[in-house]
Design a protein that fits this description.
By secondary structure, the protein is mainly alpha-helical. The protein has two domains: 276 residues, Orthogonal Bundle (Fic-like fold); 70 residues, Winged helix-like DNA-binding domain superfamily/Winged helix DNA-binding domain (Arc Repressor Mutant, subunit A, Orthogonal Bundle), CATH 1.10.10.10. It is built from 15 helices and five strands. The strands form two sheets. The chain has a three-stranded antiparallel sheet with strand order 3-5-4. A two-stranded antiparallel sheet has the order 1-2. Strand 1 and strand 2 form a beta hairpin. Helix 4 packs parallel to helix 8.
């Protein structure tokens, strides 16, 4: 990666737009610090992926996606917490419903995109579909969901004249995205996949191909790429929490590639994120297994009610914020049975009621939620 040139600024009348170099080319790594980090990142990611083998992973993926949706949207200024994600729209305060819907869209976009990977490769078509779902019925709904932009956009500042960064002109977007797609799927390029997706994410954010939602889509495609390339069996690595925790560094390192041709610093930051996030993921899964064992011991004491209690716990893993009506609809138990179980679960600290109301009570599987 020596002598790397990130691109050039091209005059567009009253402003200059940045056009990045094409990335579908042969790359050579000449930095031992990057190779060392890559080795650690591969090792930690492999440990995380192992949980796909011996844990019932599907029940936990929803929580991972919910957290990713919250953190990725938070970077863009959206404010929703984990409890609210699992509530119904009519249970959300009116002033927070737009934020809530944006997070719901992110979850829907990720779920649909992962399903589409069975039919589509990692491609512009998949990226556009993801973007369309992301902006459906929310604040960016008038900014051409699912379509690459046909006008100039910018990052930071109130106008083009005081912008922090101006991406390439819209006329360059189709060719630049085609180059990104070819690079992502090239069989001739031997660059390790983690470095590939680090480059793809940088390149995507630099192109900024949509009028809105670029940050969220750019972070979402990291996981999609890793699943598509079989680096992960299931979508359980999400870097938005790391990016949110180091938000300024995230922006600065992306920008430094453009201003100083310093790709190495971005790659080191990205790989550090993979290492830290993978370690946290492994720790979370170990704590889940510990919680399962703790619950198993408590449920055995319920004797004749153990069967229904286990069904309720299974329900709670998928819906950790719930009310009695939701349990009745899902499990088909009598109201009396449900309330007796909920009362027992409260007394044994399995769940917590957090509205303080006598009617319309809402419960939270608190110990499980806190793991995320």
């Amino acid at each position: 990666m020596k002598n790397f040139k990130s691109g050039k600024y091209v005059g567009q009348g009253t402003y200059k737009a940045f056009i990045p170099v094409r990335i579908n080319r042969n790359w050579q790594i000449d930095r031992m610090d990057i190779i060392s980090l890559l080795s650690r990142a591969d090792r930690e990611l492999g440990r995380l992926d192992m949980f796909s083998e011996y844990v019932d992973i599907e029940r936990y993926i929803r929580m991972h996606i919910a957290k990713e949706a919250i953190q990725s949207s938070k970077i863009e200024g959206t404010q929703t917490n984990m409890e609210e994600v699992f509530l119904q729209e009519n249970e959300i305060k009116k002033e927070k419903r737009d934020d809530w819907q944006e997070v719901q869209n992110y979850i829907a976009a990720m779920n649909e995109a992962v399903q589409q990977l069975h039919r589509l490769p990692f491609s512009s078509r998949l990226i556009k579909l993801t973007h369309k779902i992301l902006l459906q019925g929310v604040r960016g709904k008038h900014k051409f969901p699912g379509e690459y932009r046909k006008s100039q956009n910018w990052i930071g500042g109130a106008t083009l004249n005081d912008a922090t960064f101006i991406p390439p002109p819209h006329s360059e977007v189709p060719e630049l995205m085609s180059d990104l797609e070819k690079f992502a799927n090239s069989l001739d390029n031997n660059l390790p996949e983690l470095l590939k997706i680090a480059l793809i994410h940088y390149h995507f954010e630099t192109i900024h191909p949509f009028l809105d939602g670029n940050g969220r889509v750019g972070r979402l495609i990291i996981t999609l790429f890793l699943v598509d390339k079989k680096i992960l069996k299931r979508p359980i690595l999400y870097l938005s929490d790391f990016f949110e925790s180091h938000r300024q560094l995230y922006y600065d390192n992306l920008m430094r590639v453009r201003t100083h041709n310093d790709l190495s610093q971005w790659l080191k930051f990205f790989l550090s994120g993979v290492i830290e996030t993978s370690k946290k993921g492994v720790d979370t899964f170990n704590k889940i297994l510990k919680l399962q064992k703790e619950l198993d011991n408590k449920l055995k004491l319920l004797k004749s009610r153990e069967g229904n209690a286990r069904r309720l716990v299974e329900f709670m893993y998928g819906q950790p914020v719930f009310n009695a009506a939701m349990v009745e609809k899902d499990l088909g138990l009598s109201v009396a049975t449900i309330y007796k179980l909920l009362d027992t679960f409260e007394k044994t600290d399995i769940i917590t009621e957090f509205t303080g109301a006598k009617r319309g009570r809402v419960f939270i599987f608190d110990k499980y939620m806190k793991l995320f």
